[in-house]
Amino acid sequence: xxxxxxxxxxxxxxxxxxxxxxxxxxxxxxxxxxxxxxxxxxxxxxxxxxxxxxxxxxxxxxxxxxxxxxxxxxxxxxxxxxxxxxxxxxxxxxxxxxxxxxxxxxxxxxxxxxxxxxxxxxxxxxxxxxxxxxxxxxxxxxxxxxxxxxxxxxxxxxxxxxxxxxxxxxxxxxxxxxxxxxxxxxxxxxxxxxxxxxxxxxxxxxxxxxxxxxxxxxxxxxxxxxxxxxxxxxxxxxxxxxxxxxxxxxxxxxxxxxxxxxxxxxxxxxxxxxxxxxxxxxxxxxxxxxxxxxxxxxxxxxxxxxxxxxxxxxxxxxxxxxxxxxxxxxxxxxxxxxxxxx
Length: 342
Ligand SMILES: [Zn+2]
Known about the structure:
Layout: E1 13-16, E2 30-34, H1 36-42, E3 52-55, H2 61-69, E4 76-81, H3 83-96, E5 99-104, E6 117-121, E7 124-128, E8 133-139, H4 140-144, H5 148-152, H6 156-173, H7 183-198, H8 200-205, H9 208-228, H10 237-249, H11 255-269, H12 274-284, H13 297-313, H14 329-336
Parallel strand pairs: 1-8, 2-3, 2-4, 4-5, 5-8
Antiparallel strand pairs: 6-7
């Protein structure tokens, strides 16, 4: 890969079939941050037993701090699982200055390639600390033991470059960008999208090339976003709909899927090639329909009607197309007409 670079927070990448095998034999005393299902998949492969297993049920800071108090002496923390287990591992590695190893068991979120831990303080997301996986282990066999939709969901946070970059360019054109505008960052994002479009069949098939494409795209995204210290090319209005829905419905979602729904709707609000990005999402097999996430039509309508006010009430959210839009009943009716509901 031309723009595949390890000049990111990932020190070393081990990628291949069975690449997590016997990792436990080379890392000293270790503890594991995981959940029941991923741990069941990996525990017999790693070759040694941990000093302790943290069964992650929360990413609230107070919960994590309680776990830290109960930890024995150790050298390395292994994050094994999806976003939450790896975020907890990252936070603990940073807080206690320990070696971090990440073994994602699904690719549905990019937690395994980003340095900060996405944790919650009184339910609000905060990105804390800085931790570098050494190594990041991408084990194709482990990933393929998960339902393939959970890996395909990984493209949600990559397709979001389509709408988020538009938002950044839009904000900049209005003199409202929170950061110095960088055309190179936007162009780099476009290259990542093209790379994903080129691999769309592999991604849908959940084969090695498809899994590798998602990982490489995330790492490339970091090479762009870490030096400028923000993810504005990848996070914009499509994420804000998710934040509104999450606050409204008070339940978790598979991140990439709900972001896909945001891309579907916000690309339409932006008049930003919605049919093309929708086709790409369809071809990738991304599960973004409200029906599959059990989102009721009325809830989505109310969320969209409230979206502008929601964004304005949150100081931390950036300027996007939402700030200058009138999302009314008529617009909603027209734009949700082809979405599937219960
Ligand atoms: Zn995201």
